[in-house]
Amino acid sequence: MDFQISVYTSLGSCLALSILYVSSLYVWSSEENRDHPSTVKKRFFSVFVVMLISPFFVYLFSSPNMFNYYTIWEVMGLRTKGLMSAVFIPLLLTMILFLGPLSVQLTNGIWKIYSEPMFWLNHCQNLLWIRNHIVAPLSEEFTFRACMLPLLLQSFTPITSIFITPMFFGVAHLHHMIERLRTGMDKKTAIVISFFQFFYTSIFGIYSAYLFMRTGHFVAPFIVHAFCNHMGFPDIPDLINQTEPKRCIFCLLYILGLVGWILLLPTMTYPSWYQNNQFWMNSSDFDYFFIMKSNTNIAIICFSTITVIFASKSDTSAINIPSFIKICNQTDPQLGNCIRNSIITLRPYLNRGIPELNVPSLEPLFVDEIKIEQTGNGMELSAAFKNISLSGVTRFRLRSVRTNITTGKFRMKVWFPNLVLNATYELRGKLLMMPLNGKGACFGNFTDIDGVLSMKINRVERNSQQYYQIDFISSEFNIGS
C-alpha cells in the first residue's frame, strides 16, 4: 500500500494548520497579558475550535486510497489497540531521562506534596496549571503531531518527516515574541529568548514526532509533553550547589538517566508493543530509521543536552519577567514602599501561582513539617505537625515594610483575616506532673492574626552572577481568636 500526495500539498496544508493555530490565539482584542484569566479562557476556546477543524485537513488533503484501509481516527493515532502500553511505557522512558531531577525532588520532599489530594484539587482549579499541563499539550500534540505527521508521511520518508514537523512546531512558538514586545521588553532580549524557545521546542518536537510514529498513538506524545512541561529544565545551578556526597550522586544519576534513555529508546518504543500497523510502517527506510542506535538518536540527545546546558548558564537578565511584577531598584530611597506596592500587586497572582518563575500556587500553602519545643514554668512540650495544609495565606494585608539594603535586613508586618489549618500532629510532654501525649489529625480555624516576618539576606557571587541568599528568617504570630 503506497499512499502518495504532492510535496506542495503536504507542506502547504501543514503551513496552513500552523497559521490557523497561532492566529486563533490573537483573534481576540485584549489589553491583558497571556496569563490573565480572561485571555486564558478565550484562548482555550480558540484552540479547541482549531482542534475541531484540524481533522478536516487530514481528510481533505490525504490520499483518497488511504481511507479504504484506515479510518481517519486510526491515522491520527486515536485508536484502542496498544493504548495502555502507549499511556505508560513512553512516560516511563521519559522519566528515565529525568532520573536526576526526579531524584533531587525525591530527596527535597517535593514528592510528599504530590500525595496530597488538596494539591491536585487546587491545581485543577488553576487556569494556568490547566493551560500548561492539559490544554497546551493536548492542542499542540493533536495539531502538530496527530494531524500534521499523517500528511507529511504521505510525501516524505519518516526520517525527513521527523525533522520537518518540529520546524512548524518551533516556528509556531515564535509568536511569544509579540507578547514580550507588547509588555515592554527590549527587542534584542525578546529575539534572543524567542529564538531560544524555538530551539528547544524544535528539539522536543523531534522526540514527540518519534514517539507518535513509533507507537502510532496520539496519547504517547501528549502524556510525555505534559510531563515535560511539569518538570521543566533541569536545575543545573541547584545541582552544582548541592553538598557532597549528594552532588556526586545526583551527577551520576543525571548521567545514568541520559545513557539509559539512549539505550532504551529503540527497545521501549518497539512498534509491536503498541500494535502499530500504521501505513508509514511500510516505508522502505522505516526499519533503518528506528533500528539504528547511534546517528539520529545520539544527535537528538546531544542537541537536547546542549540546550539544557545553554539554558542553565544563560544570563539571568534574559529571564522573561512577567509584566505584573514591579522591579524595585535597590538604590531607590523609597525602597520599602516600592517592595510593599510590588507585594500588594503580586498578591492575587500568588493565589494561582506564577509558572514563568516556577512559583506554585500558595492557596493552600503546603508545609512538610513544623516542630514546636516549649520548656519552663512547669511545662515540657514537644509537638510535631506534619502534612500541613494552610488556607487563606494569600488574603493577607501588608501593614508595613522596613528595609536596610546596607545590612540586608527586612522586616514586614502582615495581618491575616482568617487561616484554616489541616494537619496531622504528634504531641509529647507534661504539664506539671501530668503527661501530655497524643497523635492524630488536627483542624484549626483562626481569625485576626498579626504577624511579623524578619529576614536577613546576603549578596553572593556565583559564576560571575550576583545572587541574594537568605542567612536567616524568623516569624512571630499573634492569634486574635
UniProtKB/TrEMBL annotation:
Any idea which GO molecular function terms this record carries?
A: metalloendopeptidase activity
| Reaction catalyzed | Hydrolyzes the peptide bond -P2-(S-farnesyl or geranylgeranyl)C-P1'-P2'-P3'-COOH where P1' and P2' are amino acids with aliphatic sidechains and P3' is any C-terminal residue
The membrane topology noted for this protein in its Swiss-Prot or TrEMBL record is: Multi-pass membrane protein
Residue ranges annotated as transmembrane are 7-29, 44-62, 83-104, 159-178, 190-212, 218-236, 248-268, 288-311
Signal sequence: where?
none
Enzyme class per UniProt: hydrolase
Just give the chief location class.
Answer: endoplasmic reticulum
Query: EC number(s) on record?
Result: 3.4.26.1
Instruction: Write out the entry's keywords from A to Z.
Output: Endoplasmic reticulum, Hydrolase, Membrane, Protease, Transmembrane, Transmembrane helix
Q: Where is the CAAX prenyl protease 2/Lysostaphin resistance protein A-like domain?
A: 127-231
GO CC annotations, alphabetized: endoplasmic reticulum membrane
Compartment(s) = Endoplasmic reticulum membrane
BP GO annotations: CAAX-box protein processing
Q: Key word Transmembrane helix present in the record?
A: yes
Family, per the entry? Belongs to the peptidase U48 family.
Q: What is this protein called?
A: CAAX prenyl protease 2
